[in-house]
Specification:
- The protein has 337 residues and is α/β, with parallel strands linked by helices.
- The chain folds into two domains: 26-127 and 259-281, Response regulator (Rossmann fold), CATH 3.40.50.2300; 129-256 and 287-331, Rossmann fold (3-Layer(aba) Sandwich), CATH 3.40.50.2300.
- The protein contains eleven helices and twelve strands.
- Strands 2-1-3-4-5-11 form a six-stranded parallel beta sheet, with helices on both faces.
- Helix 4 links the parallel strand 3 and strand 4.
- 48% of the residues are buried.
């Protein structure tokens, strides 16, 4: 081998090892709330993004699953004291802990999923899930044969209600004659981890005539999945791709870009370009999407896909503003009157 080529090869090899070693020194903490991994939805999506980053950059990834909600602040503070480069709170329950902890550790980067924190060293990852469920509503309105569809939510809070409101808006824009049945598992964080209750609510909706249910309930959605299997009715999944969970019965999955945003935040730390503040992820930003793949493509006709894509383009262009608050829907009702 030419000496110059050998020298270049050696330098490249050494440089690569230096980069790998430097990335290996980067520590990322992923802290879950309530259920943690295994929900086939929200938490699993966060892990998928972190795992992708770990595989690419050889970072050190630590996962923490607090036993109780009161453990969240202690877990955040412990990783901050250990000088982790990035600490990610998976869920809105981390807002107050990060508001309290982040100012004490200005040299540590934090990321908060689904809520907005005040400290400048926290990246608040906000998703316009209602834009995605609007499209799911269009699909449901065109696919239902009974003219009844259902929504099963986890904890009844504005964050989850946005899923419902967007879904209802999509149905109404497509076929206002379709009736929407709505139930929430509960009013505490445990509502995201009660599959038995989710199953009970879904079975009741199917019994009332709903032939499609969208589940926005975290691990409680696993119960809705069981109900769909039992009744052989349709379901719409959220947060991660669940089309393959019951092939032929999952109409679509509305992906909320948790995996994408977690991966991006870790990438920004690796490249030393991390910044705090609000980061929005909607249809326009590619952070929200509905999934069509081999497991559900036979369920969605060209007419359905054409209509959904038309609505998607209008949302991206701003011609349609999808509501996500109760006050917005009430205002529309007053205007019509």
């Amino acid at each position: 081998m030419n000496k110059n080529l050998l020298l270049i090869f050696c330098l490249c090899f050494i440089t690569l090892n230096i980069f790998q070693a430097s990335y290996a020194n980067i520590k990322v903490g992923l802290i879950y709330d309530v259920r943690g991994r295994g929900d086939l939805s929200f938490c699993d999506a966060a892990y998928a993004g972190a795992k992708k980053a770990e595989d690419k950059w050889n970072i050190k990834l630590t996962e923490i699953n607090p036993v109780q909600n009161t453990d969240t602040e202690m877990a955040v503070r412990r990783l901050a004291k250990l000088k982790y480069d990035l600490i990610i709170g998976v869920g809105f329950l981390f807002r107050e802990p990060m508001d309290r902890v982040a100012p004490d550790f200005p040299d540590v980067n934090f990321a908060l999923i689904d809520a907005e924190a005040k400290p400048t060293n926290v990246a608040s990852l906000i998703y316009k899930a209602h834009e995605g469920t609007f499209l799911a509503g269009v699909i449901a309105a065109m696919k239902t044969e009974t003219k009844k569809v259902g929504f099963v939510g986890g904890m009844k809070i504005p964050l989850v209600e946005a899923f419902e409101i967007g879904f209802a808006a999509g149905i109404k824009a497509t076929n206002p004659d379709v009736k929407l049945l709505v139930n929430y598992v509960g009013v505490t964080p445990k509502a995201f981890d009660d599959p038995a209750k989710g199953r009970e609510l879904a079975l009741a909706q199917y019994k009332k005539g709903a032939d499609i249910i969208i589940a926005a309930a975290g691990a409680s959605g696993l119960g809705v999945l069981d109900a769909a299997k039992q009744t052989k009715k349709y379901i719409i999944w959220v947060d991660s791709n669940g089309n393959g969970l019951i092939p032929g019965q999952v109409l679509t999955s509305v992906i909320k870009g948790v995996e994408l945003s977690v991966y991006q935040m870790i990438g920004h730390v690796v490249s030393d370009t991390f910044t705090g503040g609000v980061k929005n992820y909607g249809l326009k930003e590619g952070g929200i999407e509905f999934i069509v793949d081999k497991d559900n493509e036979s369920l969605l006709s060209e007419d359905v896909l054409k209509k959904v894509k038309e609505f998607k383009e209008k949302i991206i262009s701003g011609d349609i503003i999808v509501p996500h608050l109760r006050s917005q829907t009430k205002s529309e009702e007053k205007q019509r009157k």
